[in-house]
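Appendix B. One record, verbatim.
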Amino acid sequence: MVAKDIQQIKQRFGIIGNAAGLHRAIDLAIQVAPTEMSVLITGESGVGKEVFPQIIHQNSLRKHGQYIAVNCGAIPEGTIDSELFGHEKGSFTGALSDRKGYFEFADGGTIFLDEVGELPTPTQARLLRVLESGEFIKVGSSKVQKINTRIVAATNVDLIQAIANHKFREDLYYRLNTFPIQIPPLRERPEDTLLLFRKFAADCADRYQMPPIQLDDDAKQLLQTYRWPGNVRELKNVTERISVIEHDRTVTADELRLYLPNLNMEKLPALMNRGNDDQKIFHSEREILYQVLFDMKKDVTELKKLVHEIMGGKVPMSVAVEDDESYASRPIHDMSSIQEIETVEESFSLEEVEKEMIRKALERHNGRRKNAAIDLKISERTLYRKIKEYNLE
């Protein structure tokens, strides 16, 4: 596609940026639009995946048909089949009448399944049947119905890993992934961050009738080097907060840092300079890796000491703590030391921490799972799955 066509698409759908990866994704969306191929859009949370199904639909032969977007991660597991495929009257408690599902409403058009990686396994089987034969059965019915609906799906989940963990069907993955489109994260588009910032600042200025916020040179540099784990969504939120809070309309780098909570998390403590450690000379990548592992071990050891002291000795030290000097003096090629690092205590297991957080959230809300899910900032269906996984029922 020529640059002029891409520019028209960007203007029509409000896409900001000139990065090659972004232009490539737009080009692919336009090329696949006139076909009937299923499309899988992948990319991190906050990159703007929801725009690309609209590009595909509006440039397809189905543009006069229905376009329906469904957030699969927001629908409880117990009702998702009914929401997607409909149900018959009396098929379950509360089914007071027949109901069409989203697929039936989108017949002749396009359905966008966002967060498709969150679909439960039984629903994945139903979706596979639609992709293979265009057929589905309503909940509580035995009648097979035909539909002509194009499916565009999106996910920020690594589906290959999900397949390995038996969380996603391999056959469904290959059906959905007929035509893949990868949306690049914002950290791979540093040249676009200033364009996006100016756009969000101008929008905020228009909305609240105030002068647009600006950045000094150091702040611009920080904006472009920050990794933006929340991508475009995070950049928009930060820009709007700065626009509302800061009285001085030119923001410095020090002021911008106050709005970047993840800035200090970009480097692990183990990777930070420690005294004269920066004077060490490494002769191979393996030696660097060993040093990082040693430093991580020291971080964990220090954390244990701190917890032990804060709790007044009530928390037992489950393993002997080595003196930092003796530990650091070991040869960096000592494989026995690496084996010690690889031994992770159960008391520091992430699974145990997660299980305890879920248990406490359920206790705080007297077993009300919906409230506990909101408290934990996860979907209700994810909470159901975790409760079953950790046997917390």
